[in-house]
Every structure is written in C-alpha cells, then in structure tokens.
Amino acid sequence: MNAPLQEEFLTLQEIYQAARRNLPPGPWSYLIGGAETETTVLRNRRALDEISFRPRVLRDVSKIDSSATFLGQPVRLPVMLAPIGGLESIVEGGAATAARGAAQFGVPQMLSSVCQPGLEATAAAAKTVRVFQLYVRGDDAWVDDFVQRARDHGFCAFCLTVDVAAYSRRERDLLGRFVKPWRARAIEGAAFQAGLSWHQVKRFKDKYPDLPLIIKGIATAEDAELCVQHGVEVVYVSNHGGRQLDHGLGSAAVLPEVLQAVKGKAEVWVDGGFMRGTDVVKAIALGAKTVGLGRLTGLALAAGGAPGLVRALELLEEEVRICLGLLGVTSYAELTPRHLAAAQAVRQPDTFSAFPLPGGE
Ligand SMILES: Cc1cc2nc3c(=O)[nH]c(=O)nc-3n(C[C@H](O)[C@H](O)[C@H](O)COP(=O)(O)O)c2cc1C
Q1: Which of 8, 107, 118, 257 falls between 20 and 30 A from 2, CA-CA?
Q2: What is the pLDDT of residues 153-190, one digit of tens each?
Q3: What is the pTM of this model?
Q4: Does residue 228 contact residue 199 with C-beta atoms inside 8 Å?
Q5: Cα–Cα distance, 252 to 275 (Å, whole number)
Q6: Relative to the CA of 133, which ligand 1 atom is closest?
Q7: Nearest CA to ligand 1 atom 1
Q8: What three-state secondary structure class fits 217?
Q9: Is 240 a catalytic residue?
C-alpha cells in the first residue's frame, strides 16, 4: 500500500490530471504526441473501445488471483513498463525512478537504450524483473557490447524495436518548437536502424540461443510468422503508441491476426493505448501474455514520481480484479475470447478517452 498518495489519487483520471498540471508544454507534447495526424494513436484507443465484455455470473469469484508470470518469473500483474526514451524529461531520475516504482509494486521494466541514467545505473537503482530494449545504432560489435552489458546487469531478455526504420514527424513537438535535449544522441547512427533486416535477427538467435529475444513493433501476421520462423521468443505487437507510422491499425485490432499466425509458438505481448484495468483484461482475453504501459507510465511518474507510479499500478490492479470478478473468472487462465464481443465505441476516441470525466479533458 502506498499511504501518502492513496487519498490524493482515488482514480486514474486524477493521475492523468496531475501529470497534465505538472509537466511543462514541451515534455507534455513529447509524452502524449504521435506521428503526423495521430490517426494511429486514436485507432489504438478506438480498437480497445470497440471491444465489449460478455460477463458470466454465479461462478464463485470470492478468491481472485490477478498475479501473472513474465518470462517464467512471478509478477503482480500481467503488465510491464514499456520502454520510454527520455524519461528524464518527465521525472527526476528518469529510468531509475521508474525502476524503483516497478520494483516496489512488482512489475517488470523494459529499459530503453535512449533513457537516462543508462543501463548500469538503472539496474543498480532497484531490484526489478528487467528487460533491455535496444535501438540499433551501430554494427554487430556495437550490439554485442549492449548484450554483454545487459546480461552482466541482470536483464533477463533482450528486445529489438523494429518499427523505427525512419524517424517519424511528431507534429506536436514541431508545432511547439520542442527540441528534445537528447535529439543528437537519438539520431546518431540511425542508418544502422534503417538497414536492419531479418539477417540481424538470425545472427542474434544464432549467437545468443539462450537469451530470449523480443521483437517489438510487429503489426502483421506475415511478420509474426517470420518471427516464429527465426526462433524469436516474444512477438511484441506494437505501433510505438502511434508515434511512428501514421494511419496504422490499432494494436488491439492487430492482435487476433498475430495470435493466429503465431499459433502458440512464441509469446505475444501488446501495447498501444492501454490505460485501464479493463483494457488489460481485454488483451489477456484475446490471448496476449503481457501488456506494455507506455504513456500511462509517463503520466504516473509525472504525477508523483515513483510513488505515483506505484499508486497508478495499485489502481490498475484494483480495476483488473473488479473486471475479472464481474466477468465471472478467478484467474487469467479462465479468460477466453468468448468473454469479449465487438461493439461500437460510445464516444469519439482520443488519446485520453480512457479518462473522460469532468476535469479529465
Ligand atoms: C514518450 C515515449 C517515449 C518512447 N520511447 C520508446 C523507446 O525508447 N523505445 C521503444 O521501443 N519504444 C518507445 N516508446 C513506445 C512505447 O514503448 C510503447 O510502444 C507505446 O508508448 C505504447 O503505447 P501507449 O503509450 O499508448 O501505452 C515510447 C513511447 C513514449 C510515449
């Protein structure tokens, strides 16, 4: 329990509102913005808002287990902190602060290679279940150096983000003339990222057969199949929170075709627009194993640092538990797509349509 913030934040809506108050315009637009028209951002929410529940009743839900496993390790919820570059512009201490919140609550952190204070200091900050995410900005030897450092510092899996072959135009940042302080570092070596192909995935799996590999940024059944053919352990369905390719499908809408293509031969994770406990339950009912939290992590840290993140996760957990109970299940194993049905969204989706009540605009 997180006593000081329990009264301040009774709802996730208040976390969102506090973040909005606390962040200056530049970091705010960096956190919430997407590419160009932000159509993909909106579709992420729309895809979730267009799923409704089919609850079952009279099934003794007096004991509910909302814990999960993450690559074989026990965690408190089937969620993880998605990688966020530049967290240091959102909260003092950046990734180290996020690590402390994740460890205190009990969920994994996926650390971005472009987040301060970097791999070693973040690993030293807290004892989290942790995974390292790399933007490839160098040759094979450069990648191998990161693999070595990640292994040496207790990262249990390695992630390559592959939906960044070109750097997108985030128009909120451009319109607000916000230049990320880490921009030079972020674009250095971008040609290596553009030059990536399945060849590098094969090389990775040949060289590191015992290190689970996550490919983040899969948005089609075709590429999911290629992941499986290359022995990838985790297919991570993501459109980068709508921050890269504009006019993509919402992640929750892509999830079924990917699950069908993977046929249980790899784990499937997902992110994109997940803000509420019901969103998490929808993904798990569809068949995802873990849900990544991107902007929600940033909002929670901006609202209250590590304690704010813990509080947001407590609220998410409460929502998940209520949802499971009202669906008539006591664990995720009992959830199936039969608990879901297609429905029309009741309001126009936007980045924050998960927080629609007065003051939550
Ligand atoms: C501010 C910000 C920075 C991000 N930086 C990275 C990054 O460094 N590496 C990466 O793979 N994805 C990055 N992402 C994408 C997230 O990992 C995740 O895919 C996305 O945020 C999920 O959508 P959501 O924000 O709607 O939850 C970033 C997202 C945000 C909002």
Answers
A1: 118
A2: 999 999 999 999 999 999 999 999 988 877 777 678 88
A3: 0.97
A4: no
A5: 13
A6: 11
A7: 31
A8: strand
A9: yes
